[in-house]
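Take a specimen:
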Amino acid sequence: MKQPRIPKYVTTLLKKNRRGIRLDLGCGSNKQEGFIGMDFRPIKGIVDIVHDVENPPYPLPDDSCSVVLASHLVEHLSQDIIFKVFNEIWRILHVGGQLLVACPYGVGHGFVQDPTHKNPFNESTFEYFDPDKPLFDVYRYCVPRGDEPLLPWRVVQVDIDPYRTGNMQAIMEKRPHDYQGQFSLKIKKGRDGKWRLV
C-alpha cells in the first residue's frame, strides 16, 4: 500500500527532532501540549496531520516517533482493524519508543454507556501484543484481516481503576522486529512472501 504524503510542517519537525516526535493519535480538539496531533477531522490550529487512524499507513516515516499517545481512541476502533493499527503504530515508533493508551475499562460503565465504543479492553488485552506473554501466540499467525503477523511489544505497565474513574491506562514499548519472546513460536518469511513456522 502506498504511503500518504508527509505534510511539510511535519517533515520540518522530523528534521529538528532526530530522536522522534511525540504524536497524539486521534487527538480531536484536545491535542496534548508538545505533541503533533493526528485526526480525521481537520480542526484548524489543533490537528497537524489530517488522516484516519483506521486507514494505515500513516503519513509518517518508519521510526519517526518517540511517543505515541492514544487517549480514549482504541475503544472506538473496529475489532477487525485493531491489530493493523497496533502494527502501524509499531512501524512509526523508534525501538524502545512508547505507546501510551488510556481507555475505559472494557466491562465498566464508562465503556458500555457510550454507543460509539466498539472494542473493549481489559488488563489482559495488551498481553496479546507481548511475545513474553502466553496470549501473544493466540493471534500471532492468524491476525484477523491482517497481512502480516503481530509485531512485538512489551507491556511495561497496566493500571486499572474500574470503580472510581472506570478507566485504565497502559504503557507499551516497541521491541525490535526480530524479538521472539520466551513463549513465542518461531516464524520466518519464506521466498514466496508467506510466513511459516521455523
